[in-house]
Amino acid sequence: ILEKKDGLFRKHMMGKRVDYAARSVICPDMYINTNEIGIPMVFATKLTYPQPVTPWNVQELRQAVINGPSVHPGASMVINEDGSRTALSASNLTQREAVAKQLLTPAMGAPKPQGTKIVCRHVKNGDILLLNRQPTLHRPSIQAHRARILPEEKVLRLHYANCKAYNADFDGDEMNAHFPQSELGRAEAYVLACTDQQYLVPKVGLTLRRFHGHRQHNLAVQVRALASSWSQWVALGQGHVEQKVLASS
């Protein structure tokens, strides 16, 4: 039996095995936004969100149901109005097409259907995920990131600016990703726990994120490589300005 504590996060998220979660090694990626997390395709086809079917999103969800559990963006299950579940077969296209056509049709045999069908769709670009690196020492150890699906990757991709908050480096560190399963949880993650809203360390008020440290370092390296003297650096800058003027004219 796995031991668990009585705290909110330790009891429900960290003290036991949980659903809708992923764990992998983190690697640096400066080409994603600071509020994003790169998700490999193997996670994108396993993590799902229960999306209610409405006339406004039915076309998107129908295509997800037709794609099935193996093709991204797809879906793994449909929950009917009476609570019964229909698992989507990865090898039976006819079954998936039949289920997709009936997303707005009440389930047969239900006495008085309440609500709508729910499609358990795959995580997609822009969805919010809670990232955690253990040990969880302070509040910014759990922050919310927007998902960026990276089909060719096998690990989680993290921007350099978030390393200080998680006390993370890239020598084999692993992180956990949790996918909120309600609109209230998603709203709190988007607004309150988003990485772009975490500026200062709660304990002492020091700067939490280093926004442009890697950019300054890259600029210094480029200056040393391209301009060995101040006159060459000035000439390089003037040439760049002239190119911009010519391009704008």
From TrEMBL:
The UniProt GO MF terms for this protein read: DNA binding; DNA-directed RNA polymerase activity
Signal peptide location: none
GO CC entries: RNA polymerase I complex
- Name a single GO biological process: DNA-templated transcription
List UniProt keywords, sorted A-Z: DNA-directed RNA polymerase, Nucleotidyltransferase, Transcription, Transferase
What SUPFAM superfamilies does UniProt report for this protein, alphabetically? Answer: beta and beta-prime subunits of DNA dependent RNA-polymerase
Q: Where is the RNA polymerase N-terminal domain?
A: 1-207
Task: Quote the EC number.
Answer: 2.7.7.6
State the InterPro entries in the record. Answer: DNA-dir_RpoC_beta_prime, RNA_pol_asu, RNA_pol_N
Q: Please state which protein family the record places this protein in.
A: Belongs to the RNA polymerase beta' chain family.
Under which name does UniProt file this protein?
DNA-directed RNA polymerase
